[in-house]
Amino acid sequence: MNTSARYIIVVLAVIISLHYILSFTQEDYGRATSLSNIASKFKPKPVEEKSPVDEYVNAPAFNDTLHVDNRANASFVILARNSDLDGAVRSIRDIEDRFNRRYRYPYVFLNEEPFSDNFKKRISVLTSAKVEFGLIPKEHWFQPDWIDEEKAKASRDKMVKDNIIYGGSVSYRNMCRFNSGFFFKHELLQKYRWYWRIEPDVHFHCDINFDPFLHMEKNNKVYAFTITMYEYEATIPTLWGHVHDFMKLHPEYVHPNNAMGFMSENGGEKFNLCHFWSNFEIADMDFWRGPAYTAFFEYLDKQGGFYYERWGDAPVHSIAAALFTSRDQLQFFNEIGYEHNPYTHCPKGGNRWEEGRCSCDPARSFDYDGYSCMSKWDRFMDLRW
Ligand SMILES: Nc1nc2c(ncn2[C@@H]2O[C@H](COP(=O)(O)OP(=O)(O)OP(=O)(O)O)[C@@H](O)[C@H]2O)c(=O)[nH]1
Ligand SMILES: *[C@@H]1O[C@H](CO)[C@@H](O)[C@H](O)[C@H]1NC(C)=O
Ligand SMILES: *[C@@H]1O[C@H](CO)[C@@H](O)[C@H](O)[C@H]1NC(C)=O
Ligand SMILES: [Mg+2]
Fold it and tell me: Where is the active site (predicted)?
């Protein structure tokens, strides 16, 4: 062998041994230079198989931006008993997760009995927002003395016999009357204009990536809902008649562009029982505090129907919002996935459900259930989804 041949062999040996040393010590090097890898560079690329998992991973990234600078004059309101604690904890966890950890709106809890220390402790630990616990004054809660208890009892007994839900309950009636005419008078709520009502054991199924309070304020809205349905007629047999009498007495409060057409098929003669389900509400307390609603509530309260029948705050609020505001001041929040057993509103249209990373099943949304008034609302407002 001549010198140059010997020289080439030595160089080759060095290169080969270097390659093996690197292959064993440096994983990346090994992978990049392995024979099969180098060979694959010359083979035609196989068509990439579509993974069924990739196809569905399309929710947007979490956005943890805090929005605490430009907020509305607003608070959450939760009416609850001490025994509602676990359900209240679940509701607050939901709303914090889906909305309020980024907005930090305050909470006001109300009860006709003092909240226990355990209740306050277990709620306060869930949020960095301000939480206040208020006692309801007796005169805002209990059955007034001028109610004829004999007559009220006869009506309760009849409702129990007729199997009407909460038909025999006085405390349920206290609650409905309080929610209709008093909560917004509570001392702790005087400093706020807007409220968002939350009940124990409800669910918020989607990220709420906007501020519903500011939406209301900017668009001159008064009352917002997520679910609308028919009321049990047996709980409000004389309510609509009193509404009529009130409208005759105070035509000045009835808005020219009202939503009577949503609640009646014959210009107001008969109530079709459609109303907004008030366990979810975002609304303007200054509307409840204003002259029209003040006169309306006082008129209804005097009729005694909160105790002689079982008037709910849902039809009372809904009828007032529909008659004394413009229909354009009513807001349906499609984006807010919401559940109060047994019904759920799940966002519809466009890709709202994906954008909200919703946990509700859109196929089981209550919106077009036979018992829902949503299709009536869509027709009335000329909405298409
Ligand atoms: N402090 C207090 N809160 C009450 C009382 N009764 C009901 N509530 C609250 O009032 C709201 C409505 O009561 P619910 O029992 O949820 O009535 P509902 O929504 O019509 O019926 P379900 O939820 O189906 O039982 C909830 O926030 C309850 O926690 C009461 O006697 N005292
Ligand atoms: C988060 O959302 C806000 C608007 O709500 C937007 O201005 C901001 O750019 C978003 N941030 C990210 C990281 O997507
Ligand atoms: C918030 O609203 C209430 C009720 O309208 C009002 O009394 C209060 O002054 C408002 N606060 C601010 C800071 O605007
Ligand atoms: Mg409830």
Answer: 281 (nucleophile)
pTM of the model: 0.86
Long-range contacts of 263-267 (CB under 8 A, 24+ apart): 263/318, 263/319, 263/322
pLDDT band at 203; cut points 50, 70, 90? very high
Dist. CA 114 → ligand 4 center (Å): 20
Name the residue with the closest Cα to ligand 2, atom 10. 63
- The active-site residue out of 96, 281, 309, 339 is 281
Q: What is the pLDDT of residues 339-354, one digit of tens each?
A: 999 999 999 999 999 9
Q: Which domains does the chain have, with CATH numbers?
A: 74-381 (3.90.550.10)
Instruction: Say how many Å lie between the first and final Cα of the chain, rounded.
Output: 87
pLDDT tens digit sequence for 317-335? 999 999 999 999 999 999 9
Q: Is 281 a catalytic residue?
A: yes
| Atom 1 of ligand 3: nearest residue by CA position | 192
Pocket perturbation via mutation, ligand 3, pick of 184, 186, 193, 287 by most ligand atoms within 8 A of CB: 193
Write down the pLDDT at residue 17.
66
